[in-house]
Write a structure and sequence with these properties.
Radius of gyration: 21 Å
Bound molecules: zinc ion
Mean pLDDT: 96
Low-confidence stretches: none
Order of helices and strands: HEHHHEHEHHEHHHEHEHEHHHH
Number of helices: 16
CATH architecture: Alpha-Beta Barrel
CATH class: Alpha Beta
Number of domains: 1
Helix content: 40-55%
CATH topology: TIM Barrel
Structural class: alpha/beta
Strand order of the largest sheet: 1-2-3-4-5-6-7
CATH superfamily: Metal-dependent hydrolases
Largest sheet: 7 strands, parallel
Number of strands: 7
Length: 379
């Protein structure tokens, strides 16, 4: 059996994804969820005329009973006939995923509950808690500035009992130059004073205060769970160069001994920087999730560039599927095919044995994530 066949059969652990929308979607709603853009392109253009659009028509259409490369109108008509739930069941079920790690912190109209995602995918679901959301919830509970720091640490400790990891979107809010040391209690108190007063004025607590973000992230490190960090490509809220994972270097150099693994998410176009960090900091792991679904036939190139330096025990599979089950499905299909192409190339060069290729495929597809998130210890 060739490596492509082996990879096609391997169960995957999707270490970063989101729920799907179960409300009916019109074409405009579907196209908007397909892209990271905040709005539609110019009149006369379509979000489906992109690598991800081509991949939907090539790989998702057959799962809905259509020919490969079905026309967009035909695809969307069939999707509407089946309905969001059956479409989800077919596309998620065909991913062959055993476990989904779900970031529950991102809100969007019509998103299903994690339990529904598990049922549709026929997989186990584990929660990843978004750090900034916890701080915002604590602030909204009416806590005073003197107590905010302690209340955040307590709330994160409580969430740790029912999460397999934390995720921070510091890249979106303050950039990735996180301080190496935790802020002092008095610094946290002063920052809380300012930030809570601002929130009262605007009626909204959006965590974009650098000292408070640093406080919450360092509180997570002390809890020892894996900490996922958004890096690289994302929606237009992210200022790309401030999401370069190499900005985390001082923070990674000073990780306390009790910290769990730090998992860099997405990484593209900084996947080589992320691979370098995984090479020199043993606690760093990474995925190239979002990129794999969005670069179509170039998925193998992105995986190959990542594996230039990333140790094979540090790379994880993730779809970063959000809203549309098509994105979970493409993540799985393009990852399996891309990694098979990379390993096949190496086999052709006699760089490794067939046994090694099969072992690395299992590690990257699932075993690395099982080890990092201790999934086998969960009931
Ligand atoms: Zn995500």
């Amino acid at each position: 059996m060739g490596i492509a066949d082996e990879l096609a059969d391997l169960p995957l652990v999707d270490q970063h994804c989101h729920p799907i929308v179960l409300d009916p979607l019109d074409r405009a709603g579907f196209e908007l969820l397909l892209t990271e853009a905040a709005g539609h392109g110019p009149t006369g253009t379509s979000e489906l005329d992109s690598q991800v659009g081509l991949a939907v028509r090539r790989w998702c259409a057959p799962e809905l009973g259509l020919d490969r490369h079905a026309q967009p109108e035909e695809y969307l008509t069939r999707r509407a006939e089946l309905g969001p739930r059956e479409t989800g069941r077919r596309l998620l079920g065909a991913c062959g995923t055993s476990d989904l790690l779900v970031d529950t912190g991102l809100q969007h109209p019509g998103l299903c509950a994690p339990g529904e995602l598990a049922e549709l995918a026929g997989a186990r679901v584990h929660e990843v808690t978004r750090v900034e959301t916890v701080v915002e919830q604590v602030a909204a509970s009416g806590v005073g500035a003197a107590d905010l720091g302690g209340a955040v640490a307590d709330a994160l400790a409580e969430r740790a009992t029912r999460s397999v990891g934390f995720k921070t979107i510091a890249a979106y809010r303050i950039g990735l130059e996180l301080p190496a040391a935790a802020p002092t209690t008095s610094d946290v108190r002063r920052a809380a004073d300012r930030w809570l007063a601002d929130g009262e004025r605007t009626g909204r607590h959006r965590l974009d205060e650098p000292t408070l973000v640093a406080h919450a992230v360092h509180a997570c490190l002390r809890l020892g769970l894996p900490l996922q960090v958004h890096t690289g490509y994302g929606d237009p809220d992210v200022t790309l160069h401030r999401a370069d994972p190499s900005l985390l270097t001082a923070f990674l150099r000073a990780l306390p001994p009790e910290a769990g693994p730090v998992v860099l998410l997405h990484c593209y176009p900084y996947h080589r920087q992320a691979a370098y960090l995984a090479n020199v900091f043993p606690q760093v792991a990474l995925d190239v999730s979002l990129a794999v679904s969005h670069v179509g036939p170039r998925a193998a190139a992105v995986l190959a560039e990542t594996l230039e330096l990333a140790p094979f025990g540090s790379l994880l599979y993730a779809s970063d599927g959000f809203g549309l089950p098509e994105l979970h499905h493409l993540g799985a299909v393009l990852f399996r095919r891309g990694l098979a192409r990379v390993l096949d190339d190496w086999l052709a060069e006699d760089a490794l044995s067939a046994d090694d290729a099969a072992r690395f495929a299992r590690m990257i597809s699932a075993d690395n994530a099982r080890r990092i998130y201790r999934l086998d210890a969960l009931t």
